[in-house]
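This follows on from our talk about sequence and fold. Please put the record directly below this note.
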Amino acid sequence: MGGINKIILLGHLGKDPDIRHLEGGVTVASFSVATSENFKDKNSGEKREQTEWHNIVMWRNLAESVEKSELKKGDRVYLEGKIRTRQWQDKEGNKRSSVEIVADTFTIITRKKDRIAEESVAAEPPAAETATTGSDLPF
C-alpha cells in the first residue's frame, strides 16, 4: 500500500506569481504563500505570531488559471497539493535542495483589500474562484 502525500494551506501570497511558458507550450506558475499561527508565549504571556513561508508551484492548466485570475500579492488563497523535494547543483558545484508544494487545486478566498476597493463596484465581496486539475505534473 502506498503512502499519502497531501497538504492543505490557507494563506496570503507573498509576491505576485511568476508565470513562465516553457518549451512545448508548458506553463508553470510559482509564488510564495505565508501561513501564520498565533500562540501565547509561555514565559511572558504575550500573544505571538509565527509565520511559515511555502514555495508553491503549479503546472499547465492550473498555471494558466493562475495567470487568467490575475492573482496578486496579498490575496488569500486555499491550496491543496503535495510536497516535493528538489535537488540540484549550484554554479559553484554545491549540492542544493528546496521543498516545494506542487499544487493541484486552488481557490481565491479574498482579494487584497486595496484591490477589492479598486475592482468592486458593488459593496459585495468577490465570489470565490476555484481551479483544479487532475494531472498537471511534468513527470
